[in-house]
Every structure is written in structure tokens, then in C-alpha cells.
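DM from R.C. (forwarded with permission)

"hey, sorry to bug you on a friday — could you get me a structure for this? deadline for the figure draft is monday and I only need the backbone to look sensible"
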Amino acid sequence: MQGFSFSTSVRVRFAETDAQGIAHHASFVVWLEVARVAYLERHAGGYQAIRDRGIEALTTEVCVRYHRAVYFDETLAIWARCGDLRGARFAYEYSIVRDGELVADGYTRHATVDRKTYRPTRVPAWLAEAIARAEVSSP
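My reply, with the result:
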């Protein structure tokens, strides 16, 4: 997927579908999180490593645009990229693809806070550098 250097795959589980076998809209939000956690695992040592350093990354906004229905037992590629780091904020963009066809896209916005006080704190330099390295490798 052009502009993205990272993806992970998910297989649509029966529990994620409605009576018609179509993936429920809320499942897409879960898949974005799956991609985000996998991205952090690959590029920043994992979400737990961030927490272990005293930081939480709270989700402040989610947007999903649905283009095509997705069905039970299909395999999807969830493409993710991170950017727009400013102060205590950053964002991810996503494209969800089935066999080369865009089925959904969207973004999430996040804020870093101190894990003990939940007060906003700047995105730590080590995390910003890990994200910059990951995104430089993007085609």
C-alpha cells in the first residue's frame, strides 16, 4: 500500500459479525488497535515498554470510513502509519485492505500522559525518534 511501510493481518472471527455474517462496524476499531499495538511492538519495543517507562498513550479520537462490507473468515491487511507528533499528541492513519481492495480507512488521535498522574506529557524523545525511523522507511 503506497505511503505505508507497516501492516499486520487479521482474520474476521465469527464473533465479529452480525446475523448476516458481515463484520460489525465496531470490529474495525478493534482491528485499528491490533495494528497500532503491532506497530509499536515492531518499532518502539511494544506498548508495555512505553507503559514501563511511565507513559500512557490515550486514544482521544477515532474515525473510520467504511467502503465495502467485510465477511466472516476473510483475511484483511491493516496498514498503519504514525505521525503528526506535536507536544503530547500524535496520530495514526490506517487503510484496511482485502485482496488489494480498500474496504475501510481512518485515523486515531492520541495523547501521552504521565502514567501515575494522567497529566499530559510530551511524547518522549525516544518514542518520537522510533516513530521517525519507522516512517523514514516508508516507500
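R.C.: lifesaver. Helices lie at 25-44, 47-52, 125-136.
me: no worries. The CA atoms of residues 34 and 58 lie 15 Å apart.
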